[in-house]
Amino acid sequence: MTVDPRAALDRLIAALEAHYTAVVARTDPDDPSVDDAYDVLADAFEVYDDALGTVHGEATPFYLGEEDDSDDDDVDEDDLDDGLDDDGLDLDDDEDDVDDDEDDEDEDDDED
């Protein structure tokens, strides 16, 4: 069954309004009405985006990321070893690489 994109858009607009109302009326940072409005908004967006694509072959410029239920918020960025120092330079960069490049240039000069 194909959903009418106009009806899906009307539902999306209503979901945006409801989400805004829930956020403005929030009295507690963990207010479940905001979470509920978020879920309704995300669902309304997906229905609209799908309907728009199915009927008109178009898409919105938005992307909803997948929710991750893991506690990644507890990870300290300083604890992550990305192989780069604070300036973004490669910590594993060996000076040998530079010497190898110079040797290659010397060999090229010998051939001339």
Topology:
Blueprint: H1 5-25, H2 32-56, H3 95-111
Helix pairs in contact: 1-2
Q: Explain this structure to me?
A:
By secondary structure, this protein is mostly helical. It is built from three helices and no strands. It has helices at residues 5-25, 32-56, 95-111. Helix 1 runs antiparallel to helix 2 (32-56). The longest helix is centred in the middle third of the chain and has 25 residues, at 32-56. The protein is elongated and about 40 Å long. It starts with a helix and ends with a helix.
| Beginning-to-end CA distance, first to last residue | 74 Å
Q: Over all CA atoms, what is the radius of gyration?
A: 27 Å
- Characterize the overall form: elongated
Look at the helices and sheets and give the structural class.
Answer: mainly alpha
Query: Which stretches are low in confidence, meaning pLDDT under 50 for 5 or more residues running?
Result: none
> What's the SSE pattern?
HHH
**Number of DSSP helical runs:** 3
Mean pLDDT comes to 78
Beta-strand content: under 5%
Sheet with the most strands?
A: none
Helical residues, percent = 55-70%
Quantity of strands, as a count = 0
Keywords:
mainly alpha; 112 residues
Describe the structure concisely.
This protein is mainly alpha-helical. It is 56% helix and 0% strand. Helix 1 runs antiparallel to helix 2 (32-56).
